[in-house]
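cron nightly-structures :: item 1 of 1
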Amino acid sequence: MTTVGVIGLGKMGLPIARNLLDRGFTVVGYRRTATDELDLAGGRIMSSPADVASASDVLLSILPDTKALEDVVLSASGTLMGLRPGTVHIEMSTLDVEQKSRIRDRVVQAGGDLLDCPISGTPAMVGPRAATTFASGDPASIQRVRPVLDAISGPWVIAGDFGAGAKLKYIAQLLVAVHTAATAEAMLLAQRSGLDLDLVQRTLNGSIASSTIWERRGPLMQTRQWTPAPGPIATLHLILEQIDAHAADISLTLPVFGAAKTLFDQALAHGWGDLDIAAVYDQLDGQVPDAAEASGGQESNTTGTPS
């Protein structure tokens, strides 16, 4: 039976671990803050990433930033200290490709491999395996961990060479940002025009003018329900910054994306980071969200992707 080591047992990592357990894998894990949730689910918590690596046939991590990944892999108690020869590390965070590639080089030098496999979807989508994984890297390594990827999420794709997974995620998140801004504009126009918002919502659902964002976020905008947040602004904003940098690297101007990103920049600056992405409706409307003060401008620690 394959043992999978899951590092980063947060809002995304824990349901991923549960999916693996439900499908017959042995799961060991590590989280910087103490938790017994994995043990209660049938897995086993280890004391360090090195201990996870020494007990695992396959590694998996989903972390908030590159610094966390560096600590997990390269520190004195990192996975390289316990890495079994030939171990494939499925890295599911959405991080800068060049930085992740440098970490991959160290893993390869140590006799393993690291794949770039961002997952797209909210934490609520992971449990029912409705999130999508974009796998990229060495084809042979991807094939070796195919059963693990099958267990994590129902739909998953091989995006291409290492880093293609992150770039495909950028495309998805560009559309999420643009569709959210467009939905907010349309809903605000309807409201200021004196239309019945529920009628507008129902009329456009399923039409050529609709989108998944319209159908999921439109009702939240009608009621100004920003918490609990299916997809926090701060989580999306981290990826929008990466998209912006990537577009600059390839000398590409994205005017529609730029306009949408400005809305999210302003929302984050106003301290709305913990609110759902639908709250940009208030950004356009000039209102202050009821929960803005409670958010305190803190970035969410979830690595899930708004959708």
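cron nightly-structures :: done
Residues 3-161 form a domain with the Rossmann fold fold (CATH 3.40.50.720).
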